[in-house]
Amino acid sequence: MRFDEAYQGNVFIKSHQNFEESEAVLYGMPMDWTVSFRPGSRFGPARIREVSVGLEEYSAYLDRELEEVKYYDAGDIPLPFGNAQRSLDMIEDFVGQILAADKFPLGMGGEHLVTWPVIRAMYKKYPDLAIIHMDAHTDLRENYEGEPLSHSTPIRKAAELIGPQNVFSFGIRSGMKEEFQWAKEVGMYIAKFEVLEPLKEILPKLAGRPVYVTIDIDVLDPAHAPGTGTVDAGGITSRELLASIHEIAKSDIKVVGADLVEVAPIYDPSEQTANTASKLLREMILGWVQKK
């Protein structure tokens, strides 16, 4: 599908109006067809955009303003409700167009399975790709109750595609024993419970490499992000997640794309989760886009 076929509702604050002149493309993947607990993340991208109007355009952390980065909000991909495979194919094609235009793809989920087709597209362009994954959950299952297309499987699929030694997970505090055992056996890096300090140790090892960053909002403790499908106690603070984004920004890795997934606004009437997500995206735009 073409960019002009995406659903254009509200746009993220200060987004550029011209795709051709943009350096990055923000897009929504409104899919929650395979969730195992609470649906609703398909409404995440739209609400993140809507609450972004309350953001300051200036980042006191990075001393940059959004007007300094030309990024285009392409809207939401009109995914066919309930059709997981077709939805994943459409996402891969959409991101492929962004990469073909040599622009930075920044996605909003949607359930975490949407990251899988993005990785497929990224790997075609960057065969030496590495992944930084921040999440409460391992997402290393081969299937969930017999279904291989599940939000519990995207990191396993990615690891099998690019090599498990190229996947680095942080903040993990939930998963099946077999998932942790598999990661250990194949040499995949998992930092349990924490993000910032282990991230500081890993980043120098990835210097100069193309890296895709995927952040599941549930890496945050439910006190900081209750609006998600599978809340899990014992997470990090929003301050630590912001600091981790900034640590990546000042590192020598080459961030080539990213996503933020699993925001489900219906479970957070205070809109704390959506507002936090919009701020995180602002920092990702300002911190990572110039690192193409």
TrEMBL record:
It comes from the Bacteria. GO terms for molecular function: agmatinase activity; metal ion binding. It catalyses: agmatine + H2O = urea + putrescine. Signal peptide: none annotated. Mn(2+) binds at H112, D135, H137, D139, D216, D218. Binds 2 manganese ions per subunit. Pfam families: Arginase. GO terms for biological process: putrescine biosynthetic process from arginine, via agmatine; spermidine biosynthetic process. Its EC number is 3.5.3.11. Keywords: Hydrolase, Manganese, Metal-binding, Polyamine biosynthesis, Putrescine biosynthesis, Spermidine biosynthesis. The keyword Manganese applies. Pathway: Amine and polyamine biosynthesis; putrescine biosynthesis via agmatine pathway; putrescine from agmatine: step 1/1. Its cofactor is Mn(2+). Belongs to the arginase family. Agmatinase subfamily. Catalyzes the formation of putrescine from agmatine. PANTHER family: ARGINASE/AGMATINASE (PTHR11358), GUANIDINO ACID HYDROLASE, MITOCHONDRIAL (PTHR11358:SF26). This is Agmatinase. It comes from Schinkia azotoformans LMG 9581.
